Amino acid sequence: MRSSTFLPLFSMLGAFRALSLADDPRTNPAKDNSPNCSCYTVDGGNDTAYFTFHRFWDFRNLSPDHLTSDAWNADWWIQNWTSPASSDSPLERINLVENVGILTGKNGNGTALTLNTYRNNSHTQFTAEIQSMQQNIKHASIRFHARVVGSNGSEASKGACAGLFTWSNDDNESDIEILTQDPLGTIRYTNQPDLDKAGNAIPQASITSTALPPWSLFHTHRIDWLAHATHWFLDDALVAANTYSVPQRPSGIFMNLWGDGGSWTGEMAQGGSAVLVLEWVEAVFNTSGPVKGPGKRAEGKCGVVCRVDGVREIGWPEVYPNSKN
C-alpha cells in the first residue's frame, strides 16, 4: 500500500522448448534489454503475454558504495518524505535514506539490499521506501526474491508491512503485502482501491492467501500485471488472480517497509524492528513512452522471443527455438 502523501516525479506465439545450442549467439542474450531478443515472455497463468524490455537488478554482490553510484541513481530513488500522525495512523511515519542499506553475509560472503523499519520512541515509526526512476511501465511481470525478518535475522516484530508493488496513484496500484502481525504463511494480494468513498472495505479488491511457505525465508514474489487481470505467484506457483481494478495508468516499481500504528499494520512495540531483505529484482515490461537503459532500442515486431522462466541462470533470458529474426 502506497501513502498518498507523496507526489511522484515523474499476446502471438505458443509455448516453446528452450534452445540448447551453446554456439548460437542468440542463446546467450545480455541480462538487460538484449539486442538478441525482440521480446520476452513468461510462464504461468492462462494468458500468454509478451514484453519488450527486460531488466535484472542483482543485489548479491554489491560494492559498499553502490547506493551512491551512478548505476543505482539511474534506476532507483530512495525516499525521504514524512507522513504525520492522524486518528487512523497514530504514529508519525518518517522515511529515512539511511534505512536502505547493504547487508553483507557471514564471513563477507555475498550481499543483499535491505529496507529497515523500527520504532524507538512513543510517537514515530522510522521506515524505508524505494521507487524506480522509470515511471512509464505499462504491463509487466516483476519478481522480487526477498524475505522479511527482524534485526540480525531474528523474527520480525509485529507492526510492519512489507510492500512490493506497482503504483501510479491510489486507484492504479497492484500490491504484494506482507504484514508482520499475520502468520508466516499469509500474504495479501490487492488491486487498489480497496476502500470505497465511505471508507468501507471492497471485498473483491483483495485476496488473502494462507498456508503459503513462510515469508521469513527467501522466496520469489511475482506480480504479472496484464491488460485485463493481475496474477500473483510465489516461487512460480499461481496463488492469486484478480480482474477487479486492474491498473490502467503507466506506473513505477516500488518497495517499502513501513508501519503507522494503525489497524492495518498494527502497532509496533517500542524497540521493535523488521527488515525486508532483497537478493534481486527482475522485470519484463512494456512502456507508454521512451525508455532509458542498457541496450536501448525501439519497440517493434516480436521476432526473436526470449524466456525468463526456467532458465539456466536467474536473470539471464534464453531464446526459444522457432523464433525468427
UniProtKB/TrEMBL annotation:
Keyword Nucleus carried by entry: no
SUPFAM superfamilies named among the record's database cross-references: Concanavalin A-like lectins/glucanases
Limits of the GH16 domain: 57-289
InterPro entries, per database record: Beta-glucanase-like, ConA-like_dom_sf
GO biological process: carbohydrate metabolic process
Keywords: Lectin, Signal
Record has Signal as a keyword: yes
Signal peptide residue numbers: 1-22
Alphabetized GO MF terms: carbohydrate binding; hydrolase activity, hydrolyzing O-glycosyl compounds
Protein's UniProt name: Concanavalin A-like lectin/glucanase
Organism lineage: Eukaryota, Fungi, Dikarya, Ascomycota, Pezizomycotina
